[in-house]
UniProtKB/TrEMBL annotation:
UniProt similarity note: Belongs to the dynactin subunits 5/6 family. Dynactin subunit 6 subfamily.
Phylogenetic classification of the source organism: Eukaryota, Fungi, Dikarya, Ascomycota, Pezizomycotina
Function: Part of the dynactin complex that activates the molecular motor dynein for ultra-processive transport along microtubules.
Domain of life of the native organism: Eukaryota
The protein's name in its UniProt record: Dynactin subunit 6
GO CC, alphabetical: dynactin complex
Keyword terms, alphabetized: Cytoplasm, Cytoskeleton, Transferase
Keyword Cytoplasm: yes
Places the protein is found: Cytoplasm, Cytoskeleton
One of the GO BP terms on file: mitotic spindle organization
Amino acid sequence: MTSTSRDSRRPSSIPAAKPPCQIHPSAVIAEKAVLVGTHQVTIGPNTILHPYAKIRAENGPVMIGANSAIYENAIVGTSIDNSNLEQAVIIGDYVNIESGAVVEAKSVGDGSVIDVNAVVGGGTVLGRWCRVGPLERVKDGEVLEDFTVVFGDGRKRIDSTARDGAEVRRAREIGQEKAVELVKKLVVDGKAKWVE
């Protein structure tokens, strides 16, 4: 049996850099959400960052639009470990980034969904109303056109229902607005520690 010194198990006592933040008053940033980096973080109206969601603005600014949700253990932005990837990360309106997903994309279009534990690589551009399925991976620098669905070992198809149905897209937006309103009642807002 090996022993581990007590000091080697302690987390670093050096706090991560706190980024400059511009957070809309109607956004909710959970107490345990994490924002790190030296670049600007902008969060739009009615957007929710769940507990343990992480925004990394270490290699460029991160902008998140309105009515979006970043769930538990999701990571948005590029880390200092990926220093060759200096870029802004832009997340559109009505975007869901589910639990455990990692998004280093250059941009994610309005209405898109990044499902549980999916990875969207650096420099990637996702069009509007795209969906990356659970555990799927979109390679660095890939460009997906509007309404693309990534599923089953990287296969792709176009979501013709969303593409051809403005009423379907609007129904999804309304559903997102209602979900955001509900979550705003459940998640304690801790944005005060990020704004000055």
